[in-house]
Amino acid sequence: MSKESIDSHMLRVLHTLLTESSVSRAASLLGQSQPTVSLALRRLRELTGDPLLVRSGSRMVPTSHALTLIAPAAQALSHIDAILHPNTTFDPATTTGTFRIGTPDYLDVSFVPAVIDAFHSAAPNAKLEFKHLMMIDGGYENGLETGLLDLVIGNWKTPPGHLHLQPLCQDELVCLMRNDHPIARGKLTKEAYERAEHLAVTTVNTTAWGTIDIELARNGLSRTVTTTLPYFGMAPYVLVRSDLLFTTTRTLASHYASVLPLRIEAIPGGAPALTYYQLWHDRAHRCDAAVWLRRLVVNVARTLSA
């Protein structure tokens, strides 16, 4: 038997023999016969090149070398037990982990602050990082696959089929414009909408602009986009100083209409609501911490919808 072939069973026998200094007591604790443990002791002596246990009167005592083996044997057994019997219990109240969520910035006005509040209330010692979908190397799919992200939130007409998906909430499309826009209140007709110049937000790795145009087309509408921006948070400030129209969600529009001289008009003929989802990779599907994070996000979404 070579030194490289020692297994977890022999390590456990070694540790028990050295801590008990008795073949009979070790056999009892290990649930084995004394001859079996005696045979194991002989093999361990061959492996280590040391007697390990020697007689001192009527009892056995560990040698000096044996005493140096107790701690590393215990540590090795601890690591083996951690592999074979991992502790998967997750407690948000005590975790110090870091959680990462990828989101577009059109969720910033209400959803993200609500998630942050709920997160730190439940996990006061943990860290939460939001990543803009534009800033994720390789895209959000790669971020989920590699573990750079635990979760992605957004809206997609056709999300990737290999990712897990869960609907969160819905939000309707509306049109946002400045208060003194040439189009009078309540006069945003189909013709006026299609004749106007529009502002849109285009983001890398997302299809927000495409999603809106698809929904408009389903309602028989089209728009002429003459200005594009990389961030949703910039759009309302551009509207204040222009005659552009901005098609966006009611949640975002309502927020900025309450703090800037902007008003909301209904989409001519109405428009279907957009559905928001959370996406995650199979690698985190059964992770207790990731499951807890997804449940927290769902609860926030339901609370805001209510």
Instruction: Count the E strands.
Output: 12
Largest sheet: 5 strands, mixed
Helix segment tally: 11
Q: Please give the radius of gyration in angstroms.
A: 32 Å
Ranges with pLDDT <50 over ≥5 residues? 205-209
Q: Which structural class do you get from the secondary structure elements? A: alpha/beta
Q: Give the mean pLDDT.
A: 88
Give short descriptive properties of this protein.
306 residues; D-Maltodextrin-Binding Protein, domain 2; DNA binding; Arc Repressor Mutant, subunit A; five-stranded mixed sheet; DNA-binding transcription factor activity; LysR family transcriptional regulator; WH_DNA-bd_sf; alpha/beta; 42% helix; LysR_subst-bd
Task: Explain what you see.
- This is LysR family transcriptional regulator.
- Residues 6-63 form the HTH lysR-type domain.
- It comes from Paraburkholderia largidicola.
- By secondary structure, the protein is an alpha/beta fold.
- The chain folds into three domains: 3-84, Arc Repressor Mutant, subunit A (Orthogonal Bundle); 98-169 and 275-305, D-Maltodextrin-Binding Protein, domain 2 (3-Layer(aba) Sandwich), CATH 3.40.190; 173-272, Periplasmic binding protein-like II (D-Maltodextrin-Binding Protein, domain 2, 3-Layer(aba) Sandwich), CATH 3.40.190.
- It is built from eleven helices and twelve strands.
- It has helices at 8-20, 23-30, 34-48, 64-84, 111-122, 139-146, 190-195, 208-218, 235-239, 250-259, 288-305; strands spanning 53-56, 59-62, 98-103, 127-132, 151-154, 164-171, 173-178, 197-201, 224-229, 245-249, 262-266, 274-280.
- The strands form three sheets. Strands 4-3-5-12-6 form a five-stranded mixed beta sheet, covered by helices on one side. A five-stranded mixed beta sheet has the order 9-8-10-7-11, with helices on both faces. A two-stranded antiparallel ribbon has the order 1-2.
- A hairpin with a 2-residue loop joins β1 (53-56) and β2 (59-62).
- α1 (8-20) crosses α2 and α1 crosses α3 (34-48).
- The longest helix has 21 residues, at 64-84.
- The protein is rod-shaped.
- It starts with 7 loop residues before the first helix and ends with a helix.
- The model is unreliable at 205-209 (pLDDT under 50).
